[in-house]
Every structure is written in C-alpha cells, then in structure tokens.
Amino acid sequence: MLTHLVFWIFAFLLLIYIYSAAFDSWELGIKVVLMLLPVHIIYFYLLQYFVLRKYFSGKYPAAVFLAFLIMATMAVAYRLTEIYITDPYIFDFYSRSDPDFTWSKLEKDRWQQLISKGDFVNAVERCNVVVWIGVTLTLFAMWHERKNAILQAELNFLKGQLHPHFLFNSLNNLYALSLNNAPQAPGIILGLSNILRYVIYECTADRVLLERDIEVLKDYIRLEQLRYEERLDLNLNIDVEPGPWQIAPVLMLPLVENAFKHGAGETMHHPWINIELRVAKGELWLKVSNSKPDPAPAPNPKQGGNIGLKNVRHRLQLLYPEAHTLHWYDEEDCFILEMMVTLSSHPKT
C-alpha cells in the first residue's frame, strides 16, 4: 500500500512538471493533472490486475491481446476526458487573460475531435507516460519476488536433504556403539540431541552467528572422538578473529562429517583427520584432510554417494555467488578439501 502511494505521488509530481512546462503555468498544470490522474490510475491497475497476472501465469498471447485492448480503450477514455473536461477548461483559462484567444482544435465538433488521428496519437503517448513506468517497476518487483521464492524453495529443499542425511549417519554411529553396550552411548545421545536442536530449529535462519556454528561443529567432533577414542589421530586447529561474523548454517558440518564417515570410518589402521579453520579479514578458510582406506571401497549408490559435498557446493553457489571457493583433491592415500567463504557481519543493535 505504501509503495503504491509513493509511486502515485512520484507520478503526480512528474505529470505536473510535464504539463506545467507545456502550458507555461503551474496552476493550470496542477488542475489538468488532477482531472486526468484518474484515467492514469484506472489504466495502470487494469494492466496490473488483468495483463500481468496472465503474463506470469504463462498466458502470453492473452496478455499481449489484453494489453493492446486496454491501451486502446484507455486512449479513447483519455481523449473523451480531454474533449469534455480538460480542453474546455484550458480554453476558459486562457480566455480569461486573453479574450481573443482561439484554439483551432475546439472549432471542430466533438466527434471530429475524437477521430482526429494526431490528437489520438498524442493521447496514446501522454496516457502511457507514467503507466508503463509503473508496469516496468511492477514487473521487476514480481520477477524479483518470484526469483527469491524459487531460491528459498530450493534452499529449503537442500536443508531438508541435509537433516535426514545427518540424522541417519548419527543414528548409525549410535547403533554401532549400542551393539557393544559402549559406555559412550549416553554422552553421544546427549550431544546428538544438542546438535539436532541446532540443525532443526536454529538453522531456519538464512544466516547464523559463526560462533554458534563453530560451537556445534566442536560438539560434533567431540561426539566422533568419543566413538573412535585413541584409535583416531585427530588434529583440530581453530583460529578465528573476533567479530560479529555470520555464515549460512551447517555449511562446515557436512564437510567434517564426510572426513569422519569416509576417512576414519572406513580406515582400519591408524586413521587420521586434520581440520584447520581460520577467519581473517572477513574470510573463512576451512581445510579438512583425512586418510583413506587401503584399498578404497567401491562406491555404493544406495548410500547416496557424496550427497553432503554436493549439497554444500550447491548451497554455496546459491548463497555465496562469486564469494566462495570449494575444491577437493582425491589423492591416493588421502582426501583433502578446502573451502573459502566471504563472511557477512551481524548488524550492530
């Protein structure tokens, strides 16, 4: 509502400037615009209500036909308003200061004025001045709104993929421990509960505090350490400069999870994982490297392949276009992954 009000105030001022310049009188310009403004408003909302709806529903021929029909109808309405209201008023306005004032177009009868080609073309031109500015702005706003809706739906789909993916992996870990009545099981259940609370409830926002995301990442690493105990050689190095940094939620977790699942989880002897995380000058750098099993197992399509990596890469393309890098190197004896993200800062309150 406010947007429409602002637009019509802008249109009103623009029309006043144009008509006042043409009549060389601000008073006459304002009064004539007030008489013609309802035609502009009706014209605009007819286009918005009938034409744009058909256009965005894919009915392009019907939209074009309606646009020309409405344009012709409103041009006639504009001419009738001029013939019966504004032109007589303009004639009276100038006659008051110049009794000898004459206007040749008013010497014709009203039907001749209506079918005058030159006046009709001028009417088409004048009644479209502000209307198509409004239509263009509306088209851009609707296109932007639809683009955001599609992007949000795609991100929600990716998040929806991530949640069960993480949950299934964690439950598999818990199942493996429960088979042996492992004492670590209660700690894992508690930690898993904390992580799921973050993933399910707090990750609905587009951005979360980096500090909170790292905290959950540490919780996940701690859970995995409980599972592998001394069998895993884990090096974790986190160096984050203080700052109100924000990041899209759960970008780092699948990358670290991938190292545990396909590195430590499949390596029988002396598995190792190195995780380096640093933030400097608003850029986050994450490097995760892990040992590989020897020999490497054949990929199992039923396990979903590298769904975590594909998910993260797709989310980075949507959320950080031209503000990220993601590379991985599948070497003979190790897997190395590097990610860079340009962070946004949390606005100060």
From TrEMBL:
The entry's keywords: Kinase, Membrane, Transferase, Transmembrane, Transmembrane helix
Protein name according to UniProt: Histidine kinase
Output the Gene Ontology terms for molecular function: kinase activity
Which InterPro entries does this chain map to? Bact_2-comp_sensor_kinase (IPR050640), HATPase_C_sf (IPR036890), Sig_transdc_His_kin_internal (IPR010559)
Q: Name one Pfam family in it.
A: His_kinase
- Membrane-traversing stretches: 30-50, 62-80
The organism of origin for this protein: Chitinophaga pollutisoli
Where's the Signal transduction histidine kinase internal region domain?
A: 153-232
